[in-house]
Amino acid sequence: MSNFNSASLGAMLRAGTTQRDRLLVLHTPLGANKLLAERIEGVESLDDGGFRFELTALSDDANIELKTLMGQGVRLDLQTAQSRTDLRPFHGHVTEAECVSSNGGMARYRIVIEPWLAFLRHRQDSCLFQHQSVFDIVDAVFARYQSQGKLAVQWRWEIAQRDIYPVRGITTQYHESDFDFVARLLAEEGLCYWFEHATGKDGDLGSHTLVIADHNGAFRANTQATIRFHRADASEREDTIQQWRGSRQLQTNSLAQQSWDYKSVSARPVQQQSRGAGHRTLQWSDDPGAYGWETSAQGERLLSNALQALELRNKRFEGQSAVRTLAPATTFTLSGHEQHDKDSEEDRRFAVLAVRHIARNNFDEALKAGVGERLGLPDIATVFDASEDSDSDSGNAAAKPDTVTHYRNDFTTVRAATPYRPLSVDGHGQRIHPKPSVHGSQSAIVIGVGENAPVHTDRDHRVKVQFHWQRGSGSSARQPRPDGQDNAPAADRLGAWVRVAASAAGDNWGQVTLPRVGQEVLVEFHHGDIDRPVVVAALYNGAGQADAQHNEKSAGAAQSTGNAPAWFAGEGKEAKEHAHNAVFSGIKTQELSASQSGDGGYNQLVFDDTPGQGSTSLATTQAMSRLHLGHHKQQDDNARGKARGHGAELATTAQGAIRTGSGLLVSAHAQQNAKGAFMASREAQQQTKQAEELATSLANSAQTQKAQIKGEEAPDKLPAIEALKHVAEVLGATQEGASASGVNGSGGDIKATEGGQGSVTAYSEPHLQFSAPKGIGFVTPKEVIAVSGKHTAIVANQDIDLPAQGQIAVSVAKGVSLYTVGAKAGEGAEPNQERGIALHAASGSVTLQSQKGATKIAADKKVTIASTTKNVDVEAPKHVLLTSAGAYIKLEGSSIKIHAPGKVTFRGMHNFVGPQGDSASNDLPSGDFKGCAPAAETTAVGGGGLI
């Protein structure tokens, strides 16, 4: 054992030549030679975080404060074959530091060096990015780390064609670290990355730059552009490759995907196949979820990237070398290998994907022995002294023992012409960079454009929402973001349009119920994809009041509104009219202007399921219009008030109209269990037929008694009677189910409904029918007007009374026939036993005139013309003739003629004194009837009368 003590070892470490001419030179903020690099093992690669080096370092200070190293930038220089002064730098930040062992003031430290990108693993976030490309998003994430302590954040893009990368509608970082989020985005777009290192100037420790590229053209040629396949020996002027082997792996050679695009209402399929697939096709079919790409060209590009990532694994080459300049994203030309020397220049050019470095510093034997004696061997496993003879056929170039004892690497390459893409799926089919999956649902707040816009939507029934995990000026948690980004403004400037689920959604039909601004909604996600939310329901929130419809919490964070249900179960006597079970259900809308207060006009459909008091109400506060069916209660929102009756009520304070195109029945005839056709009018039809029979019988009797109007048709052909027959036919008409037709098509367009056969009552023309078993009343303090274009038939099985406080005027254009069959006194049961026709004027006169025809008064019995208080005048311009049984008295001109077949007797007390004369006027007033010409013409054609 060598005789080393702490003082001698410390002197050796502090010696001026400690770092000079060393293979490994470590620079830290602690100062020169404070830490001496001992051994290093590390990996640098395309993707996978870039690089990670673990090294041991020696120091004569066992009390170094590890926190002075954490996060600090350090640089490890590696001496290369090209120069002893122009060293290869590895710059990074200390992410782990440990004092492994110490003895007598001397210590060994373990240090892990990683790029600034590693810091992104330790920050998790949830954030929305809208209308940004992958470049914009990644730049924004990286910008969060600039000017943070000693981090040297540098990056650049090497993109062949930027315009093929779309502006993303919405991209969500959801409960994932910044590193995982960025790595996922880059992999999705087929972008790779690596780091380039630089030595600092003027005492600066240097820097490392993240390079992000989408093509192999961004790879640079290795410092040693041509590398020989040769044994390793200290006498060689250039570093060489000692082991080289190729490998092939069977891979999927065809990819097929299709993504549903609801905007185009179609699935967008894309497919890619390897050109060298031959007759053996191994296809991987997948569903990337809804709206995976906007255009087929985008889908083809993404699938092409995925296939290139698989093809990269078809054939690769691995080796072992002493080439200290090997670095990922560099290319070199292989020489001296018998399997490749005959290949073309392009096929001998390779791109490095990953390098695993193993090195130990070139300490002299004295220092090495002293460190080993005091601190033991380092934990990093390195094997340099093993020499294995093998044949050249095995792919090794070790014709004699390997004499390189301080540096070795293992590396992976592919031919430089093979496009590099990051692999997205591992060997088990699992995604290497999985997108966060959302299991279950979340709630969110509907957002809009401002306080005066209670509804914010687009033509396609979509809304915008803000999730509770977003942070910003209007966030649910009222928390800002550390980077100052306003990711929760509670306004539509951030947030994608989100579809709203409906119970029915058809072509111009379905349910339309949009959640309004401030409402809390339930959100689910297509395929669990955080970027594909769908609103599936609205939620009540807050705390409702026990005796009112409003909420104790009217508003909350993120412009949310407190929304309590309009109908609820009231508890306790204090609730009064609200103290009932949860019997109300239905739909209630609210005027837009009162969306956030709930105290404006509304429309509602309410079902009251109180046992024995069920009802349905359709109402609006506009003109207080309502249709109420069932048990009527005074209802004011949730309050059940006094009873109002039973049945159906249709009411409004404004105008109302009932319009039907094929007929309307208003009936008070009950249908037992409502089993009949709803238009069934059996009672009305029977009564109409009875009226027709009665009218026909009376008309026949009148014509028999010669009471018809001149030219009148037979009784069964009279217009009014034919009208009654027609009405009876209309009421009895039926319709077969298969013959139903609609506005836009015939019944043949619709498949017949199964389950029943037969016909139903259906009026054959637009007819309005009133029917009641106990009476119909029309009452008004004002006018009643009844007008018909053709015939009006009023038929009563008993009496018709027309009392009037004022006058009754009957005007007829063609003729009037008043006829009664009459009856003997006492035959009827009515109080009025007077039969026949009676004209009575309690006051005033009775005038009968035939202005252009004769007047005939005839009776089977006695005719009496009498005046109880005045005279009876009989006047005629030509003569007056009184005759009976052959005798007559005739007044004609200026003479009186008296004739009798028998004796004529004159009796009286008057003395006749000669003849005298007088004159009388019996001119009738002129009353030519003109009437309404169109109405008169219509009536004449129909053979009816005009009143």
Automatic annotation (TrEMBL):
<dbReference type="Pfam" id="PF10106">
    <property type="entry name" value="DUF2345"/>
</dbReference>
<feature type="domain" description="Putative type VI secretion system Rhs element associated Vgr">
    <location>
        <begin position="599"/>
        <end position="702"/>
    </location>
</feature>
<dbReference type="InterPro" id="IPR037026">
    <property type="entry name" value="Vgr_OB-fold_dom_sf"/>
</dbReference>
<feature type="region of interest" description="Disordered">
    <location>
        <begin position="469"/>
        <end position="490"/>
    </location>
</feature>
<dbReference type="Pfam" id="PF05954">
    <property type="entry name" value="Phage_GPD"/>
</dbReference>
<dbReference type="InterPro" id="IPR028244">
    <property type="entry name" value="T6SS_Rhs_Vgr_dom"/>
</dbReference>
<dbReference type="InterPro" id="IPR006533">
    <property type="entry name" value="T6SS_Vgr_RhsGE"/>
</dbReference>
<dbReference type="Pfam" id="PF04717">
    <property type="entry name" value="Phage_base_V"/>
</dbReference>
<dbReference type="InterPro" id="IPR017847">
    <property type="entry name" value="T6SS_RhsGE_Vgr_subset"/>
</dbReference>
<dbReference type="InterPro" id="IPR006531">
    <property type="entry name" value="Gp5/Vgr_OB"/>
</dbReference>
<feature type="domain" description="Gp5/Type VI secretion system Vgr protein OB-fold">
    <location>
        <begin position="495"/>
        <end position="540"/>
    </location>
</feature>
<dbReference type="InterPro" id="IPR018769">
    <property type="entry name" value="VgrG2_DUF2345"/>
</dbReference>
<protein>
    <submittedName>
        <fullName>Type VI secretion system Vgr family protein</fullName>
    </submittedName>
</protein>
<comment type="similarity">
    <text>Belongs to the VgrG protein family.</text>
</comment>
<feature type="domain" description="DUF2345">
    <location>
        <begin position="756"/>
        <end position="916"/>
    </location>
</feature>
<dbReference type="Pfam" id="PF13296">
    <property type="entry name" value="T6SS_Vgr"/>
</dbReference>
